[in-house]
Design a protein that fits this description.
The chain has a six-stranded mixed β-sheet. About 30% of the residues lie in helices and about 40% in strands. Strand 1 and strand 2 form a beta hairpin. It is of the alpha+beta class and about 120 residues long.
C-alpha cells in the first residue's frame, strides 16, 4: 500500500496530477513539512486540507521534481522512503535535496506523510 501511494506521489511530482495520490489519503491526516507556507505539523482534517493545498499549489505553479528513491525501510505500519531529488521545471530549477519521507499505512489508505530534508533550504549543487 505504501509503495502504491509513493508511486502516485512520484507521479504527482512528474506530471502535476496529484489526484491519484490524494485519493489514497484518509480524511483525517497527519502532514508534517519542514519549510515554507506548510511548515510545521498539520493534524486531522486540517492536515488533510494542508496536503491538498500543498499539492494544488505545486500543480497550479507547474512545479516538477524528479526524485530517485534510494532506500525503503518498513517499521510496522510506517514506511520510510529516502530520495535524492532535483528540480525538473523552470520554477524548481535550483532545487537539489535529499529527503526522507515517512508514510503511515491505515488499511488501504495512507494516514500520514512526514517529510524531512537534508538541505534546508534546498540548494544548487
Amino acid at each position: 500500500m505504501a509503495d502504491r501511494a509513493m508511486d502516485r506521489f512520484d507521479h504527482g511530482w512528474r506530471s502535476g496530477d496529484w489526484d491519484p495520490f490524494l485519493a489514497l489519503l484518509t480524511p483525517r491526516f497527519s502532514f508534517w513539512f519542514p519549510e515554507g507556507q506548510w511548515r510545521g505539523r498539520h493534524e486531522g482534517e486540517a492536515g488533510r486540507r494542508a496536503i491538498e493545498e500543498w499539492a494544488r499549489f505545486h500543480a497550479d505553479n507547474g512545479n516538477r521534481v524528479h526524485g530517485e528513491r534510494t532506500n525503503v525501510n518498513t517499521m510496522g505500519d510506517r514506511v520510510l522512503y529516502e530520495y535524492d531529488s532535483r528540480g525538473a521545471s523552470p520554477s524548481t530549477a535550483g532545487y537539489l535535496n535529499w529527503e526522507t519521507i515517512i508514510v503511515r499505512v491505515k488499511g488501504e489508505r495512507i494516514s500520514a506523510l512526514h517529510e524531512y530534508w537534508g538541505n534546508i533550504p534546498p540548494t544548487d549543487a
